[in-house]
Amino acid sequence: GSDFEHNKLDIFRNIVSHEIAKLSEKSPEEVYNLLETPKNSEHGDIAIAIPRLRIKGNPAEIAQSWVEKFVPNEYVISATAIGHFLNFKISHPLLAKILLQHIYDAKEKYGSNNSASGKTALIEFSSPNIAKPFHAGHLRSTIIGNFMGNVLEANGWKTIRMNYLGDWGKQYGLLAIGFEKYGSEEELLKDPIKHLYEVYVKINKDVETDKDVDDKARAYFKNMEEGDQTAIALWDKFRNLSIKKYKETYARLNINFDVYSGESQVSNKSMLDALALLKEKNLTQESQGAIIVDLKKYKLDVAVLQKTDGTTLYITRDVGAAIERYEKYKFDAMYYVVASQQDLHLKQLFKILELMGFDWVDRCKHINFGMVQGMSTRKGTAVFLDDILEQTKEVMHEVMKQNEKKYEQIEDPDMVADVIGMSAVMIQDMSAKRIRNYTFNWTRMFSFEGDTGPYIQYAHARLCSIQRNCGLSINPDAKIELLSEKPALELIDMISQYPDVVKSALYTLEPCTIVTYAMKLSHTVSVALETLWVMGAEREIAEARLLMYWASRITLGNSLKLLGLKPLERM
Ligand code: ARG
């Protein structure tokens, strides 16, 4: 069942290894590791360079003599010598048969592997700031971070998905003061995120004209950090209400966090311990009453870890948080999914941890990404995740209504509009390398043609409709060897690449690895559908095609799910 876990050619490679082992008197394991894929596929599917076997004699002559001794079998149909290479061709119909049977057994597991065997990864992503807009950077972090979690899981990792809220710092002292002045208990309960934002905007206006407010905020935050009970209680309330609301919104995106952490959750003790350790290692300096770490010799500027009034900063909390996380989770990897504007911040963080002597810093990685231009709602500039989702749905609804006849047939247009809309936003976001900036394009991303989310969803829905309407059921023993047309062979080959693509995404750490694959697969599907019909074909052919389309649907569905999208059955 799991022959495709490592490579689609595994069974065939095993057989070739045994053949060569017999001829060379080496062990099959040794030979297996030397096998290659010929650069030119016309030469064969599996090859070995004779010199790599380190045996006596002329490599080209050895290759030639082994070709003569080789007896073709059901799996490996021929051997040829080209220079010092020995090349083998495998039976492609048999490969297709094994592949489809494997997919039939694996279903939604097709493409996953267990190679990490239970290692733990912590992925920190989304991490919006309470009382401030959930901006495009947070949306990207949410989309990419969730994808990262899915890819790690598909490769056998255990994951901990963490939301590290921006909920601490002087500005939250300001928010508390603002709430005394402008806050309403009722509004807070209705929509905490919006209300706190409104309060925050008002009090920030006051600061501009009244210097007093700023001093008060500073003092309030100092109280918060010193553990003042009333201040903390109010703070907990803001935070819990906000988290409750965030959870609802994330649920719409099918995103779940294992942990809601945040800057406010980092203990004073771990920050003080960290400062003490830095001091002990002679890494800190005092500058006008503040404590700094000079990182200029690493070209990383200076990091301020404590202000003159004794309060902490963003980076201090990150140092404390990283140490606490390692102690708690003993992670094998930790990913920070954060915009590239914070490249310097994360480099400073990793450097400080390294200087402190934490060797696990090697397990930490910054997953950075570029900016999005032009993402704002139709009405204003402040953007909340909720508004983006609502607006996306509205626009998608309008697009769908343009095809009136089809629209009337859809059972739950609201849900469909929501899913296609999200697919549009998310695929647009994940189509290029993370680091590239892009412009949010409300028209292009909703198009049903080209490199868009709706295009992929449409291919999936078409495959579902074939299965629904053809009047046949899936037969895993269908005679797949009957499919010899070029579009069929190309489609089967495309499907067979999926497990390798899932693995390579773990190395590229790029969502576009999967998006590009899903696009190509959708395209190959639509080419095949032009000529290779299920309905109207002779029974055996129809069954074989249906099995092929069904396997394509599973594979496309699995890649959509990996990207964090719900595959649509009708649209
Ligand atoms: N809340 C931060 C922001 O909105 C992002 C947090 C990034 N993660 C971290 N560990 N510093 O900019």
Describe the structure.
This protein is of the alpha/beta class and 571 residues long. Among the domains are: 10-90, Gyrase A, domain 2 (2-Layer Sandwich); 120-266 and 319-373, HUPs (Rossmann fold). Helices cover 54% and strands 11% of the residues. It has a 5-stranded parallel sheet, sandwiched between helices. A hairpin with a 2-residue loop joins strand 7 and strand 8 (290-294). Helix 11 packs across helix 12 (314-329), helix 18 (486-496) packs antiparallel against helix 20 (511-531) and helix 19 packs antiparallel against helix 20 (511-531). The two termini are 34 Å apart. The model has no long low-confidence stretch (mean pLDDT 93). Arginine (ARG) is lined by residues 124, 127, 129, 164, 166, 318, 336, 338.
What are its keywords?
571 residues, alpha/beta, Gyrase A, domain 2, Rossmann fold, five-stranded parallel β-sheet, 13 strands, 54% helix, flat, binds arginine
Topology:
Blueprint: H1 10-24, H2 28-32, E1 46-49, H3 59-69, E2 76-82, E3 85-90, H4 92-106, E4 120-124, H5 136-154, E5 158-165, H6 170-182, H7 185-190, H8 192-209, H9 211-225, H10 229-252, E6 259-262, H11 268-280, E7 284-287, E8 290-294, E9 302-306, H12 314-329, E10 333-337, H13 343-355, E11 364-367, E12 372-373, H14 385-401, H15 404-409, H16 413-430, E13 438-439, H17 453-469, H18 486-496, H19 498-508, H20 511-531, H21 539-562
Parallel strand pairs: 4-5, 4-10, 5-6, 10-11, 12-13
Antiparallel strand pairs: 1-3, 2-3, 7-8, 8-9
Helix pairs in contact: 5-19, 6-8, 6-9, 8-9, 11-12, 12-13, 14-16, 17-20, 17-21, 18-20, 18-21, 19-20, 20-21
The structure holds arginine.
